[in-house]
Amino acid sequence: xxxxxxxVSGLAGMSLMTSxxxxxxxxxxxxxxxxxGLFSQYNFRGIDFSDEDVALQGGFDYAHTxxxxxxVWASSLEEDLNVGNSLEVDFYGGYYHQFTDxxxxxxxxxxxxxxxxxxxxxxxxxxxxxxxxxxxxxAGTWKxxxxxxxxxxxxxxxxxxxxxxxDANGDSKGxxxxxxxxxYGLPMGFNLxxxxxRLDVENYSEYDYTDYQIGLSKDLTLAGSEGWTVGVNYxxxxxxxxxxxxxxxxxxIGYISRSF
Length: 260
What we know:
twelve-stranded antiparallel barrel
């Protein structure tokens, strides 16, 4: 998900048959992978979460040939932008199915969790609220395009009557994020990506915005090891500065990552 794109694919599992006998060997239906990356900042859905500082990110993924998968992903944060939390850990799981060579569907749950357990302060006598957020999502991919919808099952980032003071307008459960993504492989290991998304915060439209991103990356082999990627993304939003400050301003984000 978070550059974070959370659609899990590449499910493994096939049968190997020797040509010399009737002996058959089947590979494991289980697949485990890992990734780690260094990013010039943590930018999620067009919003800066690291105050333009370098962010270390990484995670682990498990997938089964039946289509079920689960994973965990983490990123460093800038505390002041995240009510005192210095780390985000995302847990996710779901079901992926490839209907044809060109079309697949992915459904799942995503939990944003902050181990520091710092809460959003309550205003006007209201109670402090969890910064944690739970989302459900559904995505469909056709060739190079992926359309995805995410919807919060809890308040969005602790926004509700207790934390909004004079601007209180109810809870923010049901906040939705709509996105369309494009990914295309180019010659010589280059990859082109593009994204447009729209955040609709339930009962708090002042937080709504549209974000855009375009990126170019290259797959590399370094010192004889495969799985390296270097890239750069350009992102921008129309987020209202009265509510978001300069966190939604346009940014170039460079990174290097490796998958195992």
